[in-house]
Amino acid sequence: MQQSVHMSLTSPPAIRPVPPLASQEVLGVPLALTDYMRTLDWIDAAVAAGQHAYVCVAAVHTVMESQDDPGLRAAVLASDFTVPDGQPLVWAMNLLGHNLSSRVYGPDLLERACERAARTGQTFFLYGGREAALATLRDELPRRYPGLRVVGARPGPFRELEPAEAAAIAAELNAAEPDVIWVGLGVPLQEKWMAAMRERLDAPVLVGVGAAFDFHAGLKRQAPDSLQRLGLEWAFRLVQEPRRLWRRYLRYNPRFVIGFARQYARHLRARG
To answer: Which of 96, 185, 212, 230 fits a disulfide with 189 by CB distance 3.0 to 4.6 angstroms?
Structure first.
């Protein structure tokens, strides 16, 4: 009896995982009912708990490609939660009965996280993206946000990793001991990378933010705020990169409109 009492007194307390955020399903993808503040608060709590979590950031493209790519769908559904990055997704969620004030846009989420981490001491690693963007951000982000600690930056191959590569990359990231790893590989690679690497990495939280590194390094132009509010960021990006993006938007945007119209009709019928 004495031995069991002694063990209970000296054993470390169990770490409680941070509960996931409430969500609304849009075309089969659960999207978190959140804003920037609640998302950052959740990340802070997960870091404090030493949780092994990852967060996806979804635009219409992610939602629609999840219907065609089983690997992407599995990775998104296995995440701790997925935030609505695209303005059309926010409109869709509000039509389904919610009252979101804004989307959680990946580049802005990274920016606000940097501002907060400069005060709290949370450490970041930037993984993926182009070497030119990372070389700029490694120095530029701490200048923009004095006190921010970027403990590493590494371009990742834009393909599935070989086993030896995955082991070496995991060792490099773990040696840097970041609290949060920001992943900029783009959809669907970053979601699949986070799902595959999650258990290999010690960092409490991984967040996939697509082209955020290129935007903040000045290698790509962001759509003006007016176009973003109108849900027309896709049109601006299409003009910037027509050869790369025209198939994506021609394929997925009409399908999203038709698919959500059907979901909304079912929602209205269910309400009577």
So the answer is: 185
pLDDT at 240 over 80: no
What are the tokens at 151?
């403990």
Query: Which amino acid does the sequence have at 251?
Result: R
Structure tokens at 173: 């990231």
CA distance 117 to 119: 5
In the chain the first and final C-alpha atoms are separated, in Å, by: 62
Residue 59's CATH number: 3.40.50
Listed residue (12, 8, 37, 64) closest to 263, CA to CA:
64
Calpha distance 260→35 (Å, rounded):
22
pLDDT single digits (tens) 49-60: 999 999 999 999
155 part of a folded domain = yes
Environment class of 66 (CB within 10 Å of its CB; exposed 0-12, middle 13-18, buried 19+):
buried
CB-CB contact of 98 with 33 (8 Å) = yes
Residue 100 lies in domain: 23-229
- How many other C-beta atoms are found inside a 10 Å radius of the C-beta of residue 261? 10
d(C-alpha 18, C-alpha 53), whole Å: 9
Domains in the chain, number: 1
The contacts of residue 232 (CB under 8 Å, 6+ apart) are 223
β-strand pairing of 123-128 with 149-154: parallel
Count CB-CB contacts under 10 A for residue 174.
Answer: 14
CB 207, CB 42: distance < 8 Å: no
Place of tokens 């390094």: 217
pTM of the entire predicted model: 0.88
Q: Cα dist. 34→102, 131, 232 in Å?
A: 9, 32, 22
